[in-house]
Amino acid sequence: MEARQLIQALHTGTRVYGTLLISPSPKWMDFVKPTNLDFVWFDMEHIPLNINQLGWMCQGYRAKGLAPIVRIPEPDPCYASRVIDAGASGVIAPYIETPEQVIAMRGAVKLKPLKGKTLHGILTGQIQPNVELAEYLENYNKDHILIAMIESVPALDALDDILDVPGLDAVMIGPHDLTTSLAIPEQYNHPLFDNAVREIIRKARAKNVGAGIQFWLSVEQEIAWAKAGLNMISHHSDMMLFAESIDKVVNRLRVALGDDTV
User: CA nearest 237: which of 15, 82, 2, 47?
Assistant: First the structure.
């Protein structure tokens, strides 16, 4: 799915499906392309990818017709601008807790290439761009996706204001950090976590903002949340799927050949 199609789907509530990719191998693209995915995303927050690797990955997946989205190391506009320049279709800003952070990210993703006092003035409402500049900025950034990660209790408290920031295309739930912030670490079946997920989904979709989650434990939970309005479904990662699959097959071989028991 191209970036513009993905943006439209996020706002209209159409479900889109993706996964987190760790491997920078160009050969991986040939295996991912035939799958029924709408987007892929890469992680610079927890995975040691350099900007050169990232650029090749983004350009390669874009050429395959899959919108590449990048989670930057922190909600820093400079990081956001840099990955967009490298070829990313969108940016995931981690651990967002205030609308001001989203406003700053909007400047880097939705108002490129403006910088400095002019950008600040537009973001704060002190400057109104003329028609020519407004049209230029809209056209220049029409394929740039902005996603904010909701991963903490303060983010939940500020969610209404976060969702009101113009240009926000989706929020993505970070399950591990959210359960930790809720003081129920890694208890993904806990009612507190489920209620928080459903609240995020409900509020985001009420404002025509996409609602997403990166999840890996239970397809049944993902289905239940999707029926509640979740429309950006990111399931698992290549690294975790490899580990699960190879462990299962090797254990089966060991048992069959009498080399081990499980």
Answer: 47
What is the pLDDT at residue 216? 87
3-state SS class at 20: strand
88: helix, strand or coil: coil
The answer, yes or no, to whether residue 48 has pLDDT greater than 70, is: yes
pLDDT of residue 261: 61
* pLDDT tens-place string over residues 67-121: 999 999 999 999 999 999 999 999 999 999 999 999 999 999 999 999 999 999 9
Query: What confidence score (pLDDT) does residue 262 get?
Result: 55
pTM of the model: 0.93
On whether the CB atoms of residues 86 and 61 are closer than 8 A, the answer is no
Domain residue spans of the chain:
3-256
Q: Tell me, what amino acid is at 152?
A: S
Average pLDDT of the chain, as a whole number = 94
The CATH class of 3-256 is alpha beta
d(CA 251, CA 257): 10
